[in-house]
Amino acid sequence: MERWEGRRSVVNADHSVRGDAATDTGGGRAGLIRALLWLVVAVLAVRQVAVVLRQPSGERLLDLETWTGENGVLHVTGSLYDSGRFTGTPFAGLVLKPLTASAQEALGVAWTFGSLLLVVALGVVAARALPSPVGRRTALLAAPVAISLLMLSLPVRNTLHLGQISILPVLLVLLACFVVREHRAAGVLVGLAAAFQPVLLLFAVLLWLTGRRQASLSAGATFALATAAAWAAAPKDSWTYWVHHPAGAGLGERPDSLANQSLHGALLRLGLEGPVEIALFLVLAAAVVVVGLRRAVRYAQDGQLLLAVAVTGCVVVAVSPTAWQHQLLWVLLAVVGKVGKRASDRLVWPSVVLLVVTLPGTMLLPNIEALFPVRDNVLLLVALGAACLAPFVPRTSPYWQHPVPTDYAKPVAARWRRVPLLPFWRRVLTRPNLLLELLLIRVVYDAYAQVRLAARAGRPLAEEHGRQIHAIEQWLHIDIEHWVNHTVVQITWLREFFDYYYSTFHFIVPLTILGVLYARRPADYRWVRSSIGFATLLALVGFWLYPLAPPRLMPGLGFIDTVHGVQDFAKPDYGTLTTVTNQYAAMPSLHFGWSLWCGVVIVMLAPRLWMKALGLLHPLFTIAAIVATANHWVLDAAGGALVVAMGFGLTYLLSGPRKLVTGHERLTGTATEPAEPPAAEASEAARATEATEAAKATEATGSAEATESAEATESAEVMETAESAPVPEHEPAEKVGGK
């Protein structure tokens, strides 16, 4: 089913952040990391400016040009809303009117740089508004990290692309809540923000409910005065906006487009319309307002005012008639909330928020019709989760600073003692969060597919490499592809079998193995998942550096493409196939590489001999299929085997052998251990000790709440001990800590 994206959806652009987490809070190292992060901010800012300004005049700052351009709505006499291109309030039109006197080129440059300065100010204010206590490292790194995330987010990228003003209201609200101390002045800022986006009056309600009633009244009065001034200056436009289109509902592009991430837009996309849809929207909006504001007040009273502001902003997103993508910065602010009592769960919520706010829904979920309601409304769903559902940890909880420590495995000493294990790559015994794991697998695969597609080269170079591979195989006397291909073509049932095997089992078998290991052997799951991830990344390097035409795309050699049909060699792009994948990403063969990985994992972990033998059949059938269908050379399979071996080797270097210390070795202490424990393990033990002491101190106060929290801590520790209890001597090592 076709989905209307709308021009307010961000354009496709490649954005990435690279860097490693700091593990040393020393002054010199922290300062260096901070300098590097500010360098990342500068690079991102330059890139954003370049992306906007290098576009042709008619394709950049689209909304700004429709407002202030030569034929813009602010130039033309008559109503602002006659053309349907202006969706702001009459007050916004009144404020933007003087910009029509500026030169377009100069205005575009100034507008872009001004928007970036607003982003920087927003990041600095948000970083300084983090709830206390704030660690030294967090205080140093929060501002550049916040600014970088803002620049990478879809709302900011969309705002810069369109030339919108949606960053300004968010900044005004944050300044009112965290910078301006005088109540009347704070209320004026909130009122001005609401004059640009009326639903932001909910922040006046938040101010009232949190005891800042003078600021709340000032916000309402400022909003009323700004609206009245716009009504006096443009009565016809004000009537159109406030009466004919209540609060701007229905202005602009189609409200059912994917760019409208509000409850109203979601209901329209689900097929509801008319009075039924309006009534349902009003009921749901009222429920979200009540629940969300109650939660926001609770977090504000708990000392998490930034989280309270973010929750209120998410309520605004949900209940607005139109919440365009450039207005969804509130969702990113919700990343400050802490969810989960265990340390291993703390990364789940921020990871989900960051993935949703920085990546389009098509990267997060596959193109399956059953998932369209989730994929099309993923930003709205996260906003609703932040507003009404996410169980954020209060600051009064003992888990706020001291979550239940993660249970790490003690690895067997590596054979290569000169290569130290990386302390941040320690083995976790428990299984990872399923939602986060599925999201990461999907995102990594989509990134792999896009890089593979982007690693294109000219047809002559790919064919030259094909001739090189063919010549090497002839010299080695392993050029069997032509004979196998033509032999299989003559046997109908065998040709159909290999075509089906090539097209089907490439994904099914690896995903099945990962699913079984996730459920039954989580410690082994993490190890083998890392190995296939490294192998895939290494394969991308091969695709990029050595584009190779497979046998079926080599003219003059007489190969038959059994899967895709006859290729038209007169067309350099070989028809429509290149719109799906890069036809020259053949070396190394991940078809064979992934199948070999499956065979090795099954041989290592399967408990029965017949299972191991069955696992070996998969790579044998796969190499036969890729050769018989003329999709790969024999040496491509050798390349696939090489990257898989390197993937296992890198995993071994980073986290040690797959085998873990057995329960008997833990009890007797006979396991070979490194001379010194990793620094990170020592720090984890120290944090665990601090958590226990904090719980005991809290219990000593005698309050009922402290006693209940201490009991919860003790119960969680008991559960952790039960999960990581040693197994009998005869139990396999890999089942330690498993379910």
Short description:
The chain has 739 residues and is mainly alpha-helical.
The residue fraction in helices comes out at: 55-70%
Number of helices: 30
String of helices and strands: HHHHHHHHHHHHHHHHHHHHHHHHHHHHHH
Shape: globular
Strand-pairing-aware structural class: mainly alpha
Rg, Cα atoms, Å:
30 Å
* DSSP strand count: 0
N- to C-terminal distance? 41 Å
State which percent range the strand residues make up: under 5%
What are the low-pLDDT stretches, counting only 5+ consecutive residues below 50? Answer: 10-25, 572-578, 662-739
Biggest sheet layout: none
**pLDDT averaged residue by residue:** 80
Task: Please give a structural write-up.
- Helix 1 runs parallel beside helix 5 (136-152), helix 8 packs across helix 10 (213-233) and helix 9 (202-209) runs antiparallel to helix 10 (213-233).
- The chain is globular and about 90 Å long.
- It contains 30 helices and no strands.
- Helices cover 61% and strands 0% of the residues.
- It has 739 residues and is mostly helical.
- It starts with 26 loop residues before the first helix and ends in a 16-residue tail after the last helix.
- The longest helix has 29 residues, at 492-520.
- It has helices at 27-53, 62-68, 90-96, 104-128, 136-152, 154-162, 167-178, 183-196, 202-209, 213-233, 235-244, 263-269, 274-301, 305-319, 329-333, 348-358, 361-364, 372-375, 378-389, 434-454, 459-476, 481-489, 492-520, 522-545, 590-605, 609-628, 634-655, 663-668, 679-700, 704-723.
